[in-house]
Write a structure and sequence with these properties.
Elements: H1 8-21, H2 23-40, H3 45-57, E1 62-69, E2 72-77, H4 84-90, E3 121-124, E4 127-131, H5 133-139, H6 141-146, E5 157-160, E6 171-176, H7 184-198, E7 202-207, E8 210-217, E9 220-225, E10 228-240, E11 254-262, E12 270-273, E13 277-282, E14 287-290, H8 305-322, H9 343-358, E15 362-363, E16 369-370, E17 377-378, H10 383-389, H11 407-412, E18 417-418, H12 420-427, H13 434-450, H14 452-457, E19 463-464, E20 470-471, E21 478-479, H15 501-505, E22 509-510, H16 513-517, H17 520-527, H18 537-551, E23 561-563, E24 569-571, E25 575-576, E26 593-594, H19 597-602, H20 605-610, E27 619-622, H21 635-640, E28 649-652, H22 663-672, H23 674-680, H24 686-694, E29 696-697, E30 700-701, E31 705-706, E32 718-719, H25 727-732, H26 744-754, H27 763-776, E33 787-789, E34 795-797, H28 825-832, H29 837-840, E35 843-846, E36 850-853, H30 858-867, E37 875-879, E38 883-886, E39 889-892, E40 895-898, E41 901-905, H31 908-919, H32 925-933, H33 937-941
Parallel strand pairs: 1-7, 17-18, 21-22, 25-26, 31-32, 37-41
Antiparallel strand pairs: 1-2, 2-6, 3-4, 3-6, 4-5, 7-8, 8-9, 9-10, 10-11, 11-14, 12-13, 15-16, 19-20, 23-24, 27-28, 29-30, 33-34, 35-38, 36-37, 38-39, 40-41
Helix pairs in contact: 1-2, 3-7, 8-9, 10-13, 22-23, 27-28, 30-32, 31-32
């Protein structure tokens, strides 16, 4: 008879009695076991076998061996042998025999064996038991039949005579497999490293012919297996659960937390271990192994106060794991931003980040440690700058943490980054040796080299000055000058030991003579020099003139107060050099003073003129003018002469101060001065415009004279008197060389000259003047003239003169009544306020002529052919003697147009004019006349 050391018979009878008394209880047990078999434990068999082996090991870590013997999977372990309580636990779906202080105390896992067998056995040196689906069906045939033979396997337990344990092992679970074992051990082997890490109760696991060992020293767990070693940095904490979380339990359960960080490669795709793997996905850099309550399936954490308590302790312990790493590697353990993979993951991430923010684990630049909540990191990867700022910026992190690999972790911890603007703000008001400041500038230079935004922000960088002040910007600071070379209050000069090229790029200026001269302090001193020049006027004059002698002049230096010959102080541009030739041509009452002779003798002429002292005519130049504001005489009138504003102003100042009788000498001075001469000869320039109108010779404006060789203008303009000025200078200054008009003043002047009876003008010149006036008629407006030039050459009263707009009307009008012009009748009539002839004269043909088609006129046909003119269609009326009645009399004319029909006397002249008008070739009328008279090539070519 089989021995029954564990009292299995009583256990069976208890279960059978319960089933017989309540079939419902049978169904509940069957359903619960089926749920575990089909859902919860199908892939957890090696985990549960390892858990049981770890629980059995006790104080001395044990060994687990997984092997295949025939068609059985066997799991042998060392440690405490099977006892009655353990057997009772195996036969119950609702109980566990584990002591309160062992891991895994919150779940029951032996049901995992049902995934591979329905005949499990446990053989131990204290005895053996067996479970069997077949024997259970035999024990309750009616109940089994009601479920189609599906019965609970782990409720009825029988004693077993087996005792053949492997050497060195205390217990072995034997599982006859329901299916072939292909790949089963390989699947188990893949889980061994994780199980050894999670279960410190095991020191060795064997799977088939392979083995894995676990060792631990100085907080590092080393797992050695067939593929080599794995190292894990671990940190453990633990204790008892608070009484309020385990009310009614005599011995409060122990809780434990182990954080494990893989030292050889990053962790990925990890899950919570409680302590063996669950389905709670985690996205943390380290693995959490904790004694958490789990659901019966052992896949999910059982939500509640106990689980929350353990998770909170785990988060609080995380910084202690972090500080075990070298300082520059610690940020690798910071959870980076991302979507949580589970609810547990979300709670852990939030708790860990909160704990990390307040724990002092980040290395500071000064060698101390700081919590992220009080730390700052430089957003510039500069070792030198971090060292320089470690005493300036509290909580500044070590240089290594400025490097890109740490950026995301520090951002997750909300560590503020100090960019250029924040660094500049931190430096505001900081003292420091000037040499220290130079080191700061040197460290910031690489940033300024590549980042334009940074350069703008560095514009507020403080600068120490030689006088001990610290100014808030490099702008306006002078670099590299000996302060003893000048004496102007308010200059800002960088301390020589702080001087650095970066300052120049940020708005400081290299303090050579030019930079000193252009400094705000010098400009302000010059601007105020006339307010109260007596106290230090000469000292300022010497300083400024010394700088000008090295750096040249500036337009604004004209404000510099200088002493005049009469003892007064005046602006430089209101003083003339004592020996200047300009004094010879100016009006006696010109508003200029003469520079003090001692000052003039002390400084070179060029230095004095560079500050604006007048030595000759002053030339004003502006390449982008916007309005007539250049202090030039009558500039506004010149400006108005343009349809669009001039693109450049180049003019001579104070022309209106030249004495009227001294213009020949003034013109000679301008011609001798290259700058002035350039202004005189500027195309459409101000100076030439002004000279032509306002400069005079013998009291007459230059533009009213002509050069002696300008014969084409004879009679229209008088020859300029003989003066000691070259013709090309006179011409440049406005003396006429050809017929031209510039503006309405010129037009009015020409009209007046035409109407002057005293002027004897050639007919050709009159026609040219009228043609020129017609060209500009639309753009000017002038007063109507009293007299105009007519065909007789005389200047007749304008009231009696008509503008010929229809040429046939000339045959009935007296020449003294017709303006001497050719074409552009409407324009001239509008300009001169004269009526058109067609508006004042009418007439009609007297008598009848012969209507003739143009093509019937042989001479006309030949003339058109020779000239290449298309013969007009239609007809004309030919008269032996063409008479027109007009103006109260009859006139014999050569041609006429009446009601659009041409009439012509039967003469070459009459036919030619009618033909030229009809064909639109009026300018060819004389050629037509010659060819009609003799239509031969000889006439055309001769």
């Amino acid at each position: 008879m089989t021995a029954d050391p564990f009292g299995t018979e009583a256990l069976r009878e208890s279960v059978l009695a319960a089933w017989r008394g309540s079939p419902t209880r049978f169904r509940e047990d069957a359903n619960a076991e089926e749920d575990l078999r089909l859902g919860g434990y199908r892939d957890r068999l090696p985990v549960e076998l390892a858990q049981n082996a770890s629980d059995a090991a006790g104080d001395e870590p044990g060994v687990l061996r997984l092997s295949l013997v025939g068609d059985e999977l066997r799991a042998a372990n060392t440690g405490a042998p099977l006892d009655a309580a353990g057997v009772a636990a195996l036969a119950s779906l609702r109980a566990s025999s584990k002591a309160a202080d062992t891991v895994g105390q919150f779940g029951v896992g032996f049901a995992a064996v049902l995934a591979v067998t329905d005949e499990p056995r446990v053989v131990s040196r204290s005895g053996a038991v067996a479970f069997s689906a077949a024997r259970t069906r035999e024990a309750v045939p009616s109940l089994a039949s009601a479920r189609g033979g599906d019965v609970p396997v782990l409720r009825l337990v029988w004693p077993s005579d087996e005792a053949d344990l492997p050497d060195g092992f205390d217990t072995e679970v034997r599982l006859p497999l329901k299916a072939p074992a292909d790949g089963l051990l390989a699947e188990f082997a893949a889980q061994v490293p994780d199980l050894l890490l999670a279960l410190p109760g095991l020191r060795r696991v064997e799977v088939g012919d392979d083995a894995w060992e676990r060792s631990e020293a100085d907080g590092v767990v080393v797992l050695t297996g067939p593929s080599g070693e794995q190292r894990w940095l671990v940190h453990r904490v633990g204790g008892e659960l608070p009484a309020e979380l385990v009310a009614g339990v005599e011995s409060r359960p122990q809780w434990s937390v182990c954080w494990a960080w893989p030292m050889d490669e990053p962790l990925s795709g990890d899950v919570l271990h409680a302590p063996t793997p669950t389905d709670e996905k985690l996205s943390l850099p380290a693995r959490l192994i904790a004694t958490l309550p789990v659901e019966p399936s052992r896949r999910r954490v059982l939500a509640g106060a106990a689980a929350s308590f353990v998770l909170e302790r785990a988060a609080e312990a995380y910084p202690d794991l972090v500080v075990k790493l070298p300082a520059v590697e610690r940020t690798s353990l910071v959870p980076l931003p991302g979507f949580p993979l589970s609810e547990v993951d979300d709670r852990l991430r939030a708790g860990i980040l909160a704990a990390l923010r307040t724990a002092p684990w980040l290395p500071l630049a000064d060698g101390e440690w700081a919590a992220p909540a009080t730390a700052k990191v430089l957003d510039l990867a500069s070792f030198e700058l971090v060292e320089l700022l470690e005493d300036v910026v509290p909580g500044l992190l070590d240089y290594e943490l400025t490097l890109p690999p740490h950026a995301k972790a520090l951002a997750a911890l909300d560590v503020p980054r100090l960019g250029v603007s924040e660094v500049v703000a931190a430096l505001a008001g900081v003292g420091g040796d000037p040499a220290w400041w130079r080191q700061v500038y040197d460290a910031l230079t690489p940033v300024a080299d590549v980042d334009s935004t940074a350069r703008e922000e560095l514009g507020s960088l403080p600068v120490p000055l030689v006088d001990g002040r610290l100014v808030s910007s490099p702008r306006g600071v002078l670099v590299g000058t000996d302060a003893d070379l000048f004496s102007v209050p308010g200059l800002r000069i960088a301390h020589p030991e702080a001087a650095h090229p970066l300052l120049l790029r940020l708005g400081a200026t290299e303090a050579g003579p030019a930079e000193l001269l252009d400094s705000d302090a010098v400009r302000e001193a010059v601007h105020r020099s006339l307010d109260d020049p007596a106290p230090d006027g000469l000292e300022l004059v010497r300083t400024v003139l010394r700088l000008v002698s090295r750096a040249g002049g500036r337009p604004w230096l004209a404000e510099l107060a200088l002493p005049s010959a009469d003892g007064e102080w005046r602006r430089a541009d209101e003083l003339v050099l004592p020996d200047s030739r300009l004094l010879e041509v100016l009006e006696d009452d010109a508003p200029f003073g003469v520079l003090d002779a001692s000052v003039a003798a002390e400084w070179p002429r060029s230095v004095l003129t560079d500050v604006g002292v007048i030595d000759g005519f002053t030339v004003v130049e502006d390449d982008s003018p916007t309005e007539p504001d250049h202090d030039l005489a009558d500039e506004g009138y010149w400006w108005d002469a343009f349809d669009v504003p001039p693109a450049r102003v180049l003019g001579i100042r104070d022309l209106d101060l030249v004495a009227r009788d001294r213009w020949p000498r003034a013109l000679a001075m301008m011609a001798a001065d290259p700058a002035a001469w350039r202004a005189v000869t500027e195309p459409d320039g101000y100076t030439g415009w002004w000279l032509a109108r306002y400069a005079t010779i013998d009291g007459v404006p230059l533009g009213s004279w002509r050069l002696p060789d300008a014969d084409a203008l004879e009679g229209l303009y008088d020859v300029v008197p003989a003066v000691d000025v070259p013709p090309h200078v006179l011409a440049a200054a406005g003396v006429r060389t050809s017929l031209s008009v510039e503006d309405s003043d010129d037009v009015a002047d020409l009209i007046a000259r035409l109407g002057d009876p005293a002027r004897k003008l050639s007919d050709a010149l009159v026609l040219r003047v009228h043609a020129l006036l017609a060209e500009v008629a639309d753009s000017v407006s002038v007063e109507p003239p009293d007299r105009v030039r007519v065909l007789t050459g005389a200047a007749e009263p304008a009231d009696d003169v008509l503008v010929l707009d229809q040429p046939w009307l000339l045959g009935v009008l007296p020449p003294a009544q017709v303006l001497a012009s050719s074409g552009a009748a409407a324009e001239l009539a509008e300009l001169l306020a004269l009526p058109l002839a067609s508006e004042e004269v009418s007439g009609h043909v007297v008598g009848e002529g012969d209507e003739v088609v143009w093509s019937e006129l042989g001479a006309v046909r030949l003339a058109c052919d020779l000239l290449g003119v298309e013969l007009p269609g239609g007809a004309l009326v030919v008269h032996d003697d063409l008479v027109v009645a007009a103006e109260g009399a009859e006139h014999s004319v050569s041609w006429w147009v009446q009601d659009g029909v041409p009439h012509a006397a039967d003469t070459p002249e009459g036919l030619a004019r009618a033909l030229a008008w009809t064909t639109g070739r009026w300018d060819d009328r004389h050629t037509f006349a010659a060819l009609i008279a003799d239509p031969t090539p000889a006439v055309l070519l001769g």
